[in-house]
Amino acid sequence: MLTWPHPGTDWVRMMDDVEPVFLEIAKNILRFEHLVISCEFVSRLQKLGEQLNQWAEADRLPGRVITVPAPADDTWARDHGPITVKTDDGYAVLDFRFNAWGNKFSWEKDNALNSHLAGAGVFGKHRLQQVDMVLEGGSIESDGEGTLMTTSECLLTPSRNPDLDRTGIEQQLREQLGAERVLWLNHGYLAGDDTDSHIDTLARFCAPDHICYIACPDPTDEHYDALQAMQEELREFRQANGEPYQLTALPWPDPIYDADGQRLPATYANFLIINGAVLLPVYGVPQDNEAIRVLAGLFPEREIIPVNCRALVHQHGSLHCLTMQFPEGVLEV
């Protein structure tokens, strides 16, 4: 799922820079699987769908584009998109509330976007289930076997769910997502991040027993202390069987700044796993090649596809933040 940029979003001054990044992401996804694209500008959406489908058909790709006209405040589908859970009765498509990371920006259109997708029949026989809890997809990371990883700075922020403490949050994660265990990181920081330390910018499962994470090797860098503390927490985490996790540090990219001199949240942890491949954000810095090498070692049976996401971080997010996935069988293609 991609929520396409339009001039009514904060991308208005960067459309010529950012739309090619979206197109590259879309084309790489279509090499492996179907893609839902929504956009507020209907004329652009129709043309986009026709062009991408014609390209996919000409190259005999497996993926096809499903287009849905829908208003949107922004483009971060990972956080306003639905979260799909596998249950004993099939799949549940859950629509958590979205309030733009604790009422930092406008959010009403984004919060209603999943209802537009459901109304267009995108989810077929699967009913969209409303959940009365603020939760962004980028704030949780699952091993697929009952363990969730998250950050206390995000999920315990009062501007999201003021009536829920840590125990209440864990109960909701158990009831709604089937979590059997929750691993909490109490440290971790990325300058320029608007999300209150989303886990998908800091640490990710590469396998149920393996976590990769960002690590800052420079003691003079503002991130050093927080990320060192996060690394120690990761070393203390245990799998359900009591064994420690295998840990792999990701490269630390050179700093990237905006026109005002503010540091931007470039991170290699914001990769997207798709069928047969991993889309890896790169930023045009010397560490990109090492990041590609490390990801190839973490996912040896998948193609590693670098996508230059330098334009994306100017709006304080990256590749995984833009996308939301669905299991096979959920979408009505």
TrEMBL record:
Choose any GO biological process term that the UniProt entry carries and state it.
Answer: putrescine biosynthetic process
Q: Which UniProt keywords apply?
A: Hydrolase
* UniProt key word Hydrolase: yes
Please name the Pfam families in this protein's record. PAD_porph (PF04371)
Q: Which Gene3D superfamilies match?
A: L-arginine/glycine Amidinotransferase, Chain A (3.75.10.10)
Q: Which GO MF terms does the UniProt record name?
A: agmatine deiminase activity; protein-arginine deiminase activity
Q: Which InterPro entries match?
A: Peptidyl-Arg-deiminase_porph
* Transmembrane recorded as keyword: no
**What is the protein name given in its UniProt record?**
Agmatine deiminase
